[in-house]
Write a structure and sequence with these properties.
Blueprint: E1 8-14, H1 21-37, E2 41-48, H2 55-66, E3 71-74, H3 82-90, E4 94-97
Parallel strand pairs: 1-2, 1-3, 3-4
Length: about 100
């Protein structure tokens, strides 16, 4: 079956102290499932590692500026600082909080 391409979505989450690889995978799967239920294609998931903050959010903003992204799925409303939230919103993408349903 062919059809229109699904809109592209990026994912973002922040690593927590002592987060295990299994927990990281659980968050990735949450974001992937959310994108799928929203009818979008998750093209990349950015994890903000504790030792390299704010590298991931800066890379995500740069990717959003390049275009072709309809939304960014995050795990919690407070996972992105206000400054970065404004920068992302300035690119025209929608910020969505990933829950069990979009």
């Amino acid at each position: 079956m062919t059809g229109a391409a699904r809109p592209a979505m990026l994912g973002y989450f922040v690593e927590t102290f002592l987060m295990t690889p299994t927990e990281q995978d659980r968050v990735r799967n949450l974001l992937l499932g959310f994108a799928d239920r929203a009818g979008s294609q998750m093209t990349a998931i950015y994890m903000e590692a504790l030792e390299s903050q704010p590298a991931a959010i800066e890379a995500l903003i740069e990717a959003a500026r390049r275009g072709d992204i309809s939304a960014v799925a995050i795990t919690a409303a407070d996972s992105i600082a206000a400054q970065y939230r404004r920068e992302l919103e300035g690119t025209g993408v929608r910020l969505l909080i990933a829950r069990d349903s979009p």
